[in-house]
Amino acid sequence: MKFGKRLKRQIEESLPEWRDKFLCYKDLKKLVKLISATQPSSKAEAEFICLLNSEIDKFNAFFVDQEEEFIIRQMELQEWIKRRVAATSAAAEYARIGTEMVNLHGEMVLLVNYSSVNYTGLAKILKKYDKRTGGLLRLPFIEKVLEQPFFTTDLISKLVKECESTMDSMFPAAAAAATAAREEAVMVVEQRVFRNAVAALVTMRELRRGSSTYGHFSLPPLSSPDADLLQSLQLPSPIPIL
Amino acid sequence: MSSSLPVLPNTSEEKFPALPDPQHVPLERAIRRNPLPSQRPFFSSPSAFSPDLNFSSTLPHERHTNNTPFVSRSLNAGVSLPSTYLSNMEIFQLPNNFPKDPTEITWCPDSVQGMVNCSDGVIMGNNQIQNSSNKVSNDLNKQNEWWSDIMNVDWKELLDDTTISESQPKVVYPSAPSSSNVSMQQPQTDQSVPCHSGEACAVTSPSSSAATAAAKPRMRWTPELHECFINAVNQLGGSEKATPKGVLNIMKVDGLTIYHVKSHLQKYRTARYSPDSLEGMSEKKTTQSEELPSLDLKTGVDFTEALRLQMEVQKRLHEQLEIQRNLQLRIEEQGKYLQMMFEKQYKSTLDKIHCSSTVEKPTTISSDQTHSTAKIELPEAGNSSTDSKITEGFRQVSNKWKMPEVEPSNEKEINDLTSSLPPSKHSRINNEDS
């Protein structure tokens, strides 16, 4: 399947607020086609570069905005845990903390995924551009992309790991409590976050399966254990993720 | 961002065609004008060789950060603003500042024009996406099914196998001592070429919101900075009482503006977890759960199990993303290294004028990746250049090698990288190489 289609599917699976924040791959592709059709068209090339720049700007703005929110939520969650877990709190609250935690974790991972998907899209479209024009834009451009805020996911990854360790330390105790409180617990397990995460994994495997234009910038296929995991995940899906 | 699109830049659109020269010089044409001894090699992938063509020169982004008042200064509060960046700056521009090119600075109107068109494109894209999203979110029943189906999968078994046998990045830099040493950066002196296009773009940006955003640099918050913020808020008696100005005064962080604090405070207020009153996040969540079904307890799946499962999948995704990221970074480094090799190669070729000198063996370029090695060796089979499955890597590699041999008459053909070259050329070069 083509990258554009995969991207589209993934966008459809993503959180509604996120959908217009992904790379406008289709528009970029149109511009690339325009360039090759009208050979000496400096206009189309300038448009292409401009759209690329504004896209990167869009990624940065969104990424940094989300990051800011996650920093706040993470901190608040930790505070909440400190406050409530110390005092013997209701089981329902425990479950809610757990839910919030998992969802925050999921959203943060999805932000890392957002970064990765957009990076991949940029690399793909630049490859196309180079192919059409015979230029060598990809390398210097990507070099710049690597320094962009939206590609620097270190902090988010750190927060993700903190979330995981908090979960680990919290859950043995939470397990019993949550089970007891099942009826009262606000069941807001964010299916959409989970769904989205699954879709992201599937897409990643698909992308890594191989490119029709394999090159030294291509990534090796995803390892098999995950493929198995995903195989089982996608089967029960009534909406075809692939 | 897409909200307001003033008509203003359209005027510049009209100006554009009147300009005599294509301001935005496409690569090949610029290079054709380049008076280097041998023009022939430039035709297909020019800049890999040319010592003059500096892609990364004069990025307005770089220059502007110098003007930013608060780039990595140490701050009295002991908190350092980690990174700021100007939004709406041109992150990258087509390499138009070839030193010898007379048209170097004149393409601004063109880029403005591009901005106009491209933001139109963005809007179109958004609409399309929103349309399709409605379709998806409507089908709640299916989602429910999906969920319960998911939960019926035997997860224990699947997740027990957590060993990540992902091939670790093992990109080898053939004979290079260290990839950082062989960085591609051209001497900084090249960057003295003035480039106004970045400013022009920012000023006449079609999106007024983006223009205002450019005026005030965005800020990247960190947990440390946020902690400092919380302290300030608490000193002022809580998030409801605290005012942006008060917080700003207490924080005393250099470069932090009322604008940053205000929006952060807003976010902070909505993100408060208060167990007593279901405000903040949870409130938001309940409204969301109206439109999206919550986990149905009757599926018989334990609540904590569901959470654990979700966590596990997310964790897996994160692991994979990190691995992929590392891979990508290394591959990019390798690409940089490759280009440097080619450049070096070209320079030596130029010196000797004869191309047949010291072309490196393909295996030294991408030694670890068996696939690329295999592909590079393909030409020895003879007709492989016409093979449609020919890889990008090979194409780039081989193009660069055979370039010195390319006849000027082949110009058109070579300009299009997708067209394959006569196999004879391949074999000739390969014979010489091996």
From TrEMBL, chain A:
- Source superkingdom: Eukaryota
Please cite one Gene Ontology biological process associated with this protein: cellular response to phosphate starvation
Q: Where is the SPX domain?
A: 1-143
Q: What InterPro entries does this protein map onto?
A: SPX_dom, SPX_prot
PROSITE patterns registered for this protein in UniProt: SPX (PS51382)
| PANTHER family listed in its UniProt record | SPX DOMAIN-CONTAINING PROTEIN 3
Q: Name the chain's protein.
A: SPX domain-containing protein
Automatic annotation (TrEMBL), chain B:
* Domain HTH myb-type residue range list: 213-273
Question: Keywords for this entry?
Answer: DNA-binding, Nucleus, Transcription, Transcription regulation
Q: Where is this region: Disordered?
A: 1-23, 171-199, 360-434
Record Gene3D superfamilies: Homeodomain-like
What spans are recorded as compositionally biased (Polar residues)? 1-11, 176-194, 360-373
Q: Indicate whether Nucleus appears among the record's keywords.
A: yes
UniProt xrefs under Pfam families? Myb_CC_LHEQLE (PF14379), Myb_DNA-binding (PF00249)
Compositionally biased residues, Basic and acidic residues? 402-415
The GO terms describing molecular function are: DNA binding; DNA-binding transcription factor activity
Q: Which InterPro entries match?
A: Homeodomain-like_sf, Myb_CC_LHEQLE, Myb_dom, Myb_dom_plants, PHR1-like, SANT/Myb
Q: What is this protein called?
A: HTH myb-type domain-containing protein
